[in-house]
Recover the amino acids of this structure.
């Protein structure tokens, strides 16, 4: 660790093997809290390279508790990094149910709130779902219902060792990135929001190296880790052939108008749940339009269509047919029975 910290302090990138060694030393208890804290600050100041992100994710994928399901190459995850500090409603969680209602198989990875007003686990629990299901029960949810939720602490016990130093240091680091890159069900398709514009291209390239089939990595220029309804969104798209393309998207591209960011922010989980129900019942609002934008890109990631207009219509149909809402109600019921 001393050699690795010396290299990082000189703003030198680590090789994939060096970052893997460092992560193993930390999660297996060979590194001290001081060394973990120094690693977090050093990587934050230097900036994570694609190779460092990829190597870190490979370790956490190896150590994760697996969810074994059929056809993982079809699974889509909408888990983002969080950490945008903006207090928006649970966009990616609601988007997951819209995708499920449109026939996409979803393996949603998530946690309780760290920086937001309401994490995905907080929302689902508030709405009556049992969130701490075992890998076997999550697999049943995915196979029978087409959507399952993996509560991160249960599936990533290796992360426990670094939680204390991370909390004490209090800055975002490579550990904020590896969770969304380490889907326990092995999802090969991802719509992934990141908290910083500088990470968009890096995360897409790391996903390519990790064997992802299709991915869209997004960052709203208003600071959010979602496709934004209020601003330009920077996008890196990993296509199924392995090509990564960068572009920008604005709501006007599909005929939507912009709304202020404040119109999609909530005070806590109770308000976020009200927004979720409103969207899934098809009540038009800034939140409704924002979910449609995110679901549109999620459907493109799924491989159902490459056309934005077609994807948008599929997302609308999922909501207005009642299928997305039905997926949520059945999700809550089945999680309680298992």
């Amino acid at each position: 660790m001393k050699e690795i910290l010396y290299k990082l302090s000189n703003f030198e990138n680590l090789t994939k093997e060096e970052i893997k060694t460092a992560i193993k030393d930390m999660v297996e208890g060979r590194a001290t809290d001081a060394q973990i804290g120094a690693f977090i600050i050093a990587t934050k100041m230097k900036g994570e390279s694609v190779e460092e992100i990829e190597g870190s994710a490979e370790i956490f994928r190896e150590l994760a508790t697996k969810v074994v399901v059929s056809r993982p190459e079809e699974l889509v995850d909408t888990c983002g990094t969080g950490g945008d500090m903006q207090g928006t409603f649970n966009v990616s969680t609601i988007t997951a149910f819209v995708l499920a209602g449109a026939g996409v198989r979803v393996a949603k990875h998530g946690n309780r709130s760290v920086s937001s007003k309401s994490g995905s686990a907080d929302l689902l629990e508030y709405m009556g779902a049992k969130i701490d299901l075992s890998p076997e029960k999550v697999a049943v949810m995915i196979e029978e219902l087409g959507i399952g939720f993996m509560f991160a602490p249960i599936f990533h016990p290796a992360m426990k060792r670094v939680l204390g130093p991370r909390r004490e240091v209090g800055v975002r680091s490579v550990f904020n990135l590896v969770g969304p890159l380490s889907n326990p069900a092995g999802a090969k398709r991802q719509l992934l929001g990141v908290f910083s514009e500088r990470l968009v291209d890096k995360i897409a390239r790391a996903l390519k190296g990790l064997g992802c089939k299709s991915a869209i990595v997004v960052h709203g220029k208003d600071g959010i880790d979602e496709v934004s309804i209020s601003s330009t969104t920077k996008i890196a798209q990993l296509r199924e052939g392995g090509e990564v393309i960068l572009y920008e998207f604005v709501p006007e591209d599909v005929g939507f108008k912009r709304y202020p960011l404040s119109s999609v922010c909530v005070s806590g989980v109770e308000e976020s749940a009200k927004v979720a129900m409103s969207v899934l019942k098809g009540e038009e609002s800034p939140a409704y339009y924002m979910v449609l934008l995110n679901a549109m890109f999620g459907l493109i990631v799924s491989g159902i269509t490459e056309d934005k207009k077609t994807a948008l219509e599929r997302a609308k149909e999922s909501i207005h047919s009642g299928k997305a809402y039905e997926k949520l109600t059945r999700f809550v019921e089945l999680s309680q029975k298992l």
